[in-house]
Amino acid sequence: MYRFFTILFFLCIFWIFFANAQEIVVFQQEKEIVSLSVPNQVSVLKNKPLFQEVLEENGQKVYMLTHTDAQLSAKAADSMVTWVKFSLQNRMSKDVYLEVGSFSIPYFEVYVPNKVGKYTMKKLGNILPASAKEVRSNLFLIPLISGQDTLTKDFYLAFYHRYTHLAPVEVSTIPLRLGSLPLFIKESHSRDLFFGFFIGIIFIMSVYNFFIYLSIREKAYIYYILHILFTGLSTITFVGYGFDIFWADFPQFNQYVYAFAINLPNCFLIGFSIYFLETFKYAPVWHKVLLLFIFLFIANTLWALTGDYASIVLGQLLILILCLCLFIVSLRTYLKGHRTARFYIIANTSFIAGVVTIILVSNKLIPNNFLTAHANQIGTVLEILLFSLALTDKIKTLTLEREEAQKENLRLVEEQKEILEQKVRERTKELETANQEIIAQNEELMQQQEEILAVNEALEQSHNIIKYTSDRLNKSIQYANQIQQVILPQKEKINRFFKEYFALYYPKDVVSGDFYWFTLLSDHKAIFVLADCTGHGVPGAFMSIIGNTLLHEITKTKNIHLPSEILYNLDIAVRNILKQDESKNSDGMDISVCFFEKQTNSNTYQIIFAGAKSDLFYVKENQIHKLNGDRITIGGLSNRIKTFKDEKITLHEGNLLYFSSDGYIDQNNPERKRFGSQQFQNLLFSISILPMQEQETKLLEVLKAHQQAEEQRDDISVIGIRL
Q1: CATH numeric code, 22-179
Q2: 281 against 572, higher pLDDT
Q3: pLDDT band (50, 70, 90) for residue 635
Q4: What is the spatial distance between Cα 505 and Cα 489, in angstroms, rounded to a whole number?
Q5: What is the mean predicted confidence (pLDDT) over 54-77?
Q6: pLDDT given at position 11
Q7: Which of 523, 499, 501, 521 is nearest to 653 (CA)?
Q8: Signed CA dihedral, 175, 177, 182, 187: sign only
Q9: How many other C-beta atoms lie within 10 A of the C-beta of residue 637?
Q10: Alpha-carbon distance 155 to 87, whole Å?
Q11: Pairwise CA distance, residues 104 & 497, whole Å
């Protein structure tokens, strides 16, 4: 029994050893390319960061790595590494090359033994410049054994995870092939021809559709052209032509191109689909879903710019989901009556078929041949061509719809034309009837016009008469104003008796009902009068002339100088001249009379004042005082005997007196408020310190500020005298 179990144990060990023994690849045919498979020809080793550890595990010594390469390999101690080992014997006369058929590998190392058994390390990957390649190709070609070397040798490949942000390197998905350089170059020429044809189609379709866009200005074409261009960029990026031809010396550019190449073509595809399928009309819910996809692809682009491998995985997942969504949306719009969506369904199906084929080939579920290896590009070309047919069909459909609409419009125009002609005939008949009525009315209007012309002529004659009369009246009033100005006291005469004075004389109309009067009795005696006659304008002016004449008669002819007696005689004279006892005329005047006697020995003035409804203001010892006149007027309808009293005061040289009619005090502002007696008295006191001419200016400024745009109510007169 013991011997049986011992034999069984050694048989198991023998079976395990030979079952896992690696097959040696023997090259005998020069026209043959051999694909390496896991685990038959290739063994995979993991969790061995250093090349020395890999050699030790395989029974080889550490010193077999050259000194320089050992230092470089030691830097990988902090990285996760997947090692690939295969054995090779060359029995043909040509050199054997290894092709690593995936350009998307960021960085890997190839360890090649030389004739003396030491290993040389070769660094490759898309993070290195294209000059790092020994053979210029869109993929990676590495010379392994020369044609004269027939020994069996072990080769190692190290794939570093740190350059893929810890993404696992799945060796089984990386195509590894062995063959002679002429065979690979021949195959590369076929591949170059295919992709040249592919890029040519991309370019031609872009230019063709751009010119179509310029002629019809359809937004869908812009998104379609951008989708084509970025699809071409995506293709040449992922198969290595972009790096090999355009940015060979800038490997860092690969990361950014990947970010845009995997996401932006889909953004523009969504934009094209939205406008072509009119999702906002036929599938509003899916329209919002597609807009969400645009946001996701843009966000994934920004993520991919950081170099994170997970963004590429997410991008591939989003593409698969998007293809399914676009298929559902196109089918839904077609079922809702969007006829041209059928081309979109076929185009989308061809693209999905290409993507699915590539996935099946990558997982080795179907054979890898020229057709399946380029299924993605073939599906893309079919998609582009079918999209062009779809756009052409849409334009044709729109053209037919436009023609049908034009025909319908022409039919409607003809119908409207007939209706309008009928209405025109009816309207013409109505207009003819109305025209007859208008002719009759026109005759009546002509007759009325003749009558109006006659009336206008009469009015014009009346206007001319009125204008002539008005001109004469205005001239008469202007002449009356000149006369009134002449009878006012002369300035030089007043200045001979008083130190200085001002006269604010502001008529409401051209001529005034206010007047002031002055007579010099001797070098030491004088009389000053300010009167406000009833009314203003021409009536007031007549009264002022009467008053002026009567004052001259009373003081000069009758030689009456006492103010109260002057007022008494003036009242009797006015009543007699106007015959007020008989005619019931009520005109009269309010008047202030002052008699001045200068005392030369004491530089004082003896002043006697009497007033008829008029007051006198004077400033003495820095105070303003007021002498009130009697509350009766000169003239009027009163039959009682009027008596007036005299007020006597003594003033010194430099003291001020102010005479005023009621026009200033009664003037209203826009709120209908009078200026008022108290405010007027305060104003006189405030300006008493100013020179006389400045006092006149200040009085006028305050009046204008109070009055504003209101009409002047009465004649305004304010006389200021400095003794």
Answers
A1: 2.60.40
A2: 572
A3: confident
A4: 12
A5: 45
A6: 39
A7: 499
A8: negative
A9: 12
A10: 6
A11: 122
pLDDT tens digits, 249-267: 677 666 677 777 778 888 8
Residue 478 confidence (pLDDT): 75
In sequence order, what are the residues at sequence separation of 6 or more whose Cβ sits closer than 8 angstroms to the Cβ of residue 574? Answer: 546, 547, 550, 580, 587, 588, 589, 634, 635
Name the CATH topology of 485-722.
Phosphatase 2c; domain 1 (3.60.40)
Which residues have a Cβ under 8 Å from the Cβ of 450 and sit 6 or more positions away? none
H-type helices in 20-98, by residue range?
A: 51-57, 67-74
Average pLDDT over residues 106-121: 80
586-602 in b/e form (b: 16+ CB < 10 A) is ebbbbbbbbbbbbeeee
Q: How does residue 28 score in pLDDT terms, banded at 50, 70 and 90? A: low
Three-class secondary structure of residue 538 per DSSP: helix
The sheet carrying 34-35 orders its strands as 34-35, 176-179, 96-100, 140-145
* Segment 449-482, tens digit of pLDDT: 888 888 888 888 878 887 777 777 777 677 777 7
* Each residue's pLDDT tens digit, 573-617: 998 888 887 877 888 899 999 999 998 888 899 999 999 999 999
Determine the residue type at 59. G
Mean pLDDT of 295-322: 79
Rounded distance between C-alpha atoms, residue 598 and residue 619, angstroms:
18
Q: Please check whether residue 174 is in contact with residue 100, taking contact to mean a CB–CB distance below 8 angstroms.
A: yes
The DSSP bridge partners found for residue 721 are: 501, 657
Contact 344, 277 (CB under 8 A): yes
Q: Report the C-alpha gap between 290 and 65 in whole angstroms.
A: 56
How is 223-278 classified by DSSP, letter by letter? HHHHHHHHHHHHHHHHTTHIIIIISTT-TTHHHHHHHHHHHHHHHHHHHHHHHHHT
Q: Tokens 């022409």 label which residue?
A: 410
Please give the structure tokens belonging to residue 584: 């019931």
Which token pair is 37?
Answer: 């498979």
